[in-house]
Amino acid sequence: MLSKVYAPGPVEAKWAEAWQKDRLFISEPSPDRKPFVVVIPPPNITGALHIGHALNNTLQDVLVRYARMRGREACWVPGTDHGGIATQNVLEKMLKAEGKTRHDLGREEFLKRTWAWYGECGGTILGQLRKLGCALDLGQENVRFTMDKPRAAGVFEAFRSLWEKSLIYRSERMINWCTRCGTALSDIEVEYEDEKSKLWHIRYPYEDGAGSVTVATSRPETLLGDTAVAVNPEDGRYKGLAGKKLKLPLTGRLIPLVADEGVEKDFGTGAVKVTPAHDPLDFEIGQRHKLEVLRVISYEGRMVNCPAEYEGLSVQAARKAVVEALDAAGLLEKEEHYKHSVSKCSRCLSHIEPLVSEQWFVKMKGLAAPAIEAAEKEKVRFYPSSWKKPFTAWLGNIQDWCISRQIWWGHRIPVWYCRSCSADGLKFDDKGALSRVSFADGARPIVSQDKPSSCGACGGHDLLQDPDVLDTWFSSALWPFSVFGWPEKTKELDYYYPTSVLVTCYDILYLWVARMVMSGLEHMGRPPFEQVYVHGMVRDKHGRKMSKSIGNVIDPLVMMEKYGTDAMRFSLMAQTMGGRDVPFSEEGIIGGRNFVNKLYNAARFIQLYLPEKPGPLKTEPPRELADRWILERYAEALRKSEASMAEYDLPKAQDALYAFVWDEFCDWYLELAKPRLQGPGKEKVLALMLELFSGALKALHPFMPYITEELYASLKPYLERPGDYLLKQRRPEISGTGTGATAEMEELMGMITQLRVARAQFEIPPGKTIKALAASADAAALERLRAGAAYVKLLAKVEELEIGRDLPKPPRAISALSGAFTLYVPMEGAVDLEKEKARLAKELEKARKDGEQALSRLNDPAFTAHAPKAEVEKIKARSEEMSGKISRLTAILEELK
RNA sequence: GCGCGGUUAGCUCAGCGGUAGAGCGCCUCUCUUACACAGAGGAUGCCACAGGUUCAAAUCCUGUACCGCGCACCA
């Protein structure tokens, strides 16, 4: 006999290995079958997978397994992402522990280390996906990486093609600079956070001594880089003053007062200091008025190009020093408390400095337009659909994408400069390496993946590659087609593209999904997927983000170890409600574990009765009510489950099967089958039981692959059509609905429940059998009860059930109503009359209330005139039922007096 | 400021026009030969608030409040 409690560990290991060994997850282009294709959102190689990955991949696995079991050529493409800045940060942290920086190693050595890390971490991630049960072909040749050779070829082709269409350009513009990461970022990689600060009002005196203009600022230190003060041209306070010169405090530099419509009259003092090098709005104003762009904050976040006392100070220190100096000079008019949002690096949370810098950009407006159209025309459809609007709105607002990063780990920008042609713009670090590029107007660098042999213009050979790398999302954006070998015209690309559905958390909808849609349309001419399944973020059970500092992080690996993978997957699914965040806790997994154990024990129960000699049991048409009933419930569960899958409502699809297995199959059918398994019809009952249970295992397999495979394998020798691995089988057919067995069975179930309630209330020990009488004036109901009496006897522990039209209430009996029946349970000792009366009175009261309500509705002519006929009939029936109940209860109560 | 979600049992959430549901937790009884990771029974809800539409509203509409999340602004 097997253990009472299921032990997932060894079972999971066994099947994970078997599935991989038998290459169960491979897919090949099969033109005769419709493909179902999913590309994995490639996890960054930054460490172990977290619970969000577990959710994301479980959802995909369910969809992929489900599709496969419905005969689709399902292909789920595995891979990992090099993760640019994120991964470089991990490596730099490791170096820091050794007391080193990446510059100590040098670029080449640093990259070597990072590749080694990829080997290690990539393997760990794949192992975790495998453990999670993912139906991914993890054969070495099949796993893609955003920086492997074929993907690098794709990146180059995308760059080249955009460059040739002039959609990629290099220019000096305002960008977000993370002083900690030491690189430019795109707008979307910046987060905003409210911060309490101050608004300083500072006087800027006129050159001619005629008073001063007061500006309000939250960043006084940037004053050192001011090249103007701006006011609104419509502002009466400054009428006619534009063009006058002001003396910039602390430096004495003369700057103009300009009139610009970008200035709000009503904000602050109506006058704004203009620092074109360090503020996006000021940059625009500067462009309009051809102001000098004076950089006073360096890439390291320190003050430069300013009076000696501030030179080299951090931004924070400079702020303090500037405010103090202004105060001392009597130029500080006032300080106000002020709340404003500051920009932070989404990766390291350091402050972002907006600054002007020369970078590579992709022109986005033209790329976004077709993507917006695709979403609007539902060529790309969102689940839940509420994501469509934010998606198109974001694309509609899109700015050019800064794609160059001043880091080392990533796809090097495939651009080369000729030292003799463009020497002016090239800057070198102290080791002689090209550190910054700034090329003159009209200079055309060479775009090439490998080092070109010579310069096309001058024939020179002294060629240097751009030092920067591409934003990691540049390669991710190509993922749905680069994984199939693009730009090569492979048969995989031809067969699998476009993919079917993309499953992702909403946090990378713009960062990644939008860019994939744009590049799919641009490079392939078609959107990369038909559907986008958007799920939420996994949070703790109170909705808080999981974080190390709160200590509420749930490690999926630990949970899988502790409760089993199926249990974790099940619970994760059960909590995932349409696109919103997923509350999750360890207690939640226990529910899943319990269900896995329930399945295991149901199988154990069936096995108890299986003949010793294995061999298929022949199924036969169902013979009695319970059989017809359970078949109907089974069909209904499968139907519901499939309908929910079609709407991508995975938790509901899972729940329909869960409820069937637990509440119907186990709680009722198995219980009813117990005596039948002792008698002569045993084999036939077993055969049906096996058919339904193995069918339920098939239907549940996408959700909980391990336990279902394990149990199915153990029952296989007894099945008529055993089949292979579950994944290679078809889902069970739906049949046997509409026999009316459900209503008939429910009548009996109701009676059983009534008897159980009576037993519980009058404390009849569960083991003790009772006598019962069931009286009814309804001849058909009596007939039905006679047919089903055995069920009542069995499940309500009734040893003698008397059924008849006019059965008198025995003395010392308790009474109950069930549908058309009045039930009496004779008691051995005295009946607690008060308790009985109270109980019946309560019932009576409820029946009266319901009856009155029904009657008043029926008496309302508006209701009978407007409501659908079926509804009126329903209320009529209820009213009749209640009046019957009332008279029966009244009679019983009368007798008790 | 604009937008999107939410507000239902102690907790986490379903339900989205016809008499309020699940899981977990709680209470009572039971270790009955599948399962105590279980079974049987039970308690618990002005379905945020205010209006409206409708024969009928938790469900549709409008507004309010509160909570969350985006986006924009932020001198």
Q: What's the short story on this structure?
A:
The protein is of the alpha/beta class and 897 residues long. It contains 26 helices and 31 strands.
What labels would you give this structure?
26 helices; 31 strands; 897 residues; RNA-binding; alpha/beta
The tally of beta strands, per DSSP, is 31
Which shape, going by the Cα principal axes? elongated
Count every helix, treating DSSP H or I runs of 4 or more residues as helices.
26
Give the termini distance in whole angstroms: 57 Å
Radius of gyration: 37 Å
- Helix and strand content put the structural class at alpha/beta
Mind summarizing the main beta sheet? Answer: 4 strands, antiparallel
Strand order of the largest sheet: 6-5-14-16
Give the low-pLDDT segments.
none
Give the averaged pLDDT, no decimals: 88
What percentage of amino acids are in beta strands? 15-25%
Helix content: 40-55%
What does this structure look like?
With 897 residues, the chain is α/β, with parallel strands linked by helices. Strands 6-5-14-16 form a 4-stranded antiparallel sheet. It has a 4-stranded mixed sheet with strand order 10-11-9-12, with helices on one face. It has a 4-stranded mixed sheet with strand order 29-28-31-30, sandwiched between helices. Strand 28, helix 23 (779-795) and strand 29 form a beta-alpha-beta unit. Helix 18 packs antiparallel against helix 19 and helix 22 (741-761) crosses helix 23. The model has no long low-confidence stretch (mean pLDDT 88). It binds one RNA strand of 75 nucleotides through strand 8, strand 12, strand 13, helix 10 and helix 17.
